[in-house]
């Protein structure tokens, strides 16, 4: 009988995700004190620069102000209730984020900023991060693998 360790299963999962064209990276590399930091602190759970780039790529028709407004709405919780915030985020995923922008005459118009490209899945980016440490208060968590969608990093 062959036995697998947790580390073996984690590595096999990462290899499987790579076969599915996910980019894989170690959480320590993108941690605040890593070689390629993408988070300001360990309580950041969104890779904001990657998300901003994805929203810009998927919504080239929107001006930067609208893109930044969408990013703010996604990353700053509006309600004290976790359930309500999750419901709001689900609506952003399915319907897009309402953003205001000015037309050529200066009038305010409204549009949607999409955070996923459902029509062209190849326009989405898939990132798997192993050992992604999150510290909240005095509690430290380190999931084996976290999947980020549309968090492509461009240098």
How does this structure look, described?
This protein is α+β, with helices and mostly antiparallel strands and 155 residues long. The protein has 2 domains: 1-42 and 117-155, no CATH class; 60-113, no CATH class. It has helices at residues 6-19, 27-30, 48-58, 64-75, 82-95, and strands at residues 23-26, 97-102, 108-113, 126-130, 134-136, 139-141, 145-149. Strands 1-4-7 form a 3-stranded mixed sheet. It has a two-stranded antiparallel sheet with strand order 2-3. A hairpin with a 2-residue loop joins strand 5 and strand 6 (139-141). Helix 3 packs across helix 4 (64-75). The chain starts with 5 loop residues before the first helix and ends in a 6-residue tail after the last strand.
């Amino acid at each position: 009988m062959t036995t697998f360790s947790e580390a073996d299963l984690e590595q096999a999962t990462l290899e499987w995700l790579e076969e599915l064209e996910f980019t894989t990276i170690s959480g320590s590399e993108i941690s605040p004190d890593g070689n390629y930091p993408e988070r300001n602190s360990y309580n950041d759970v969104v890779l904001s620069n990657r998300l901003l780039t994805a929203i810009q790529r998927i919504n080239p028709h929107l001006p930067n102000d609208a893109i930044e407004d969408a990013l703010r709405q996604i990353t700053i919780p509006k309600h004290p209730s976790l359930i309500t915030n999750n419901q709001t985020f689900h609506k952003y995923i399915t319907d897009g984020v309402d953003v205001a922008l000015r037309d050529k005459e200066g009038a305010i118009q409204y549009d949607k900023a999409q955070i996923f490209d459902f029509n062209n899945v190849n326009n989405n980016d898939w990132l798997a991060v192993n050992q992604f440490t999150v510290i909240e208060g005095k509690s430290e968590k380190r999931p084996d693998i976290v999947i980020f969608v549309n968090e492509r990093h461009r240098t």
